[in-house]
Amino acid sequence: MRTMLVDALDHLVLAVPHLASAAERFERLGFVLSPPVAHPGMGTELRALFLGRGPAHAYIELLAVRDEAEARRIPGRDAEFEALARGGGLSRIFLSTNRLAEALERLQAAGLTAAPTHVRRADGSPVASTVAVPARSRLGAAVGLIEYASPAERRWESRQANGLFAHRFPAKRIDHIAIIVDDVDAAARAWDELLGVPVRGEVRTPAMVIRQLDAGNAVIELIAASGPESPVALRPRGLVSMVAVEVPDVDEAVRIARERGFTITDPSQGPLPETRTATIPAGELAGMALQLLEYRR
């Protein structure tokens, strides 16, 4: 196992055709989103939904294109434009790191060339440096690394002070995301060799094999069909446009979601032991399904 070069899941990019209409759906469910922000020179605008507690929190970035020509000049944006062509959906995983230079060296040693993009505020002050990892086929999904100019503790304190965790929906944190792959062994090996992300465990069901990767504050599930007759074998490969969030009481969360006009499945036994889940379909949340997950421990 290689040295882990990432600290945590930082954020997930949800590419949306229209920022205002996408944000309205999450706000109607009861989430607080950050104000709209445009990144100069990048052609995009975003709002963020923060979940979790403390410096290891993560967020979902609702990202829309405001200047296509400008946005296409940014390296590694193919996944976002592909998601937009499908009407919107999750497009990329961003992992935080304090060792971006070392990560670039490891990628170069593996024959992969990547260059950082420097994100700045409107006043020119630095926000972060990001890298699109050029190994989408090996990792199973589009992955980016981000190294911030400010420490995690300061970002947490600022976001908390601005009320960005004052949600009216009982979601505690991002629990896991999923990637459909053909070969879980090869994909897990690539995550280890390139980024040092280790395997936490494995779950097998009659339909699938789930290899769980430890991203620090969340799990990345690599999912493969258990055999050619499994329904998983028919699913598209890549990042699943679904986020699982932990809730303290799935029955209560379902009641709230239905009260606010959302269609959601009845709670049922989850694929993991001692879990119950219910899901809001992707069509009701700008192309991203939201799985509500209760641990019964």
Structure overview:
With 297 residues, the chain is an alpha+beta fold. It folds into two domains: 8-161, 2,3-Dihydroxybiphenyl 1,2-Dioxygenase, domain 1 (Roll), CATH 3.10.180; 173-295, 2,3-Dihydroxybiphenyl 1,2-Dioxygenase, domain 1, CATH 3.10.180.10. It contains eight helices and 17 strands. The protein has helices spanning 19-29, 68-72, 78-85, 100-109, 136-139, 152-161, 184-195, 250-259, and strands at 8-15, 37-39, 44-51, 58-65, 89-96, 117-120, 126-133, 143-148, 173-180, 199-204, 208-214, 219-225, 238-239, 242-246, 268-269, 275-280, 289-295.
SS content category: alpha+beta
Please state the average pLDDT score.
Answer: 95
Based on CA atoms alone, the radius of gyration comes out at 18 Å
The CATH class name of the largest domain reads: Alpha Beta
What order do the SSEs take from the amino end to the carboxyl end, as H and E?
A: EHEEEHHEHEEHEHEHEEEEEHEEE
Largest sheet: 9 strands, mixed
Q: How many domains comprise the coordinates?
A: 2
Helix content: 10-25%
The overall strand count is 17
Overall spatial form? globular
CATH architecture of the largest domain: Roll
**Cα distance spanning the termini:** 31 Å
Tally the helices. 8
Q: What is the fold-level CATH name, i.e. the topology of the largest domain? A: 2,3-Dihydroxybiphenyl 1,2-Dioxygenase, domain 1
Question: In what range is the share of β-strand residues?
Answer: 25-35%
CATH superfamily of the largest domain: 2,3-Dihydroxybiphenyl 1,2-Dioxygenase, domain 1
Q: Which stretches are low in confidence, meaning pLDDT under 50 for 5 or more residues running?
A: none
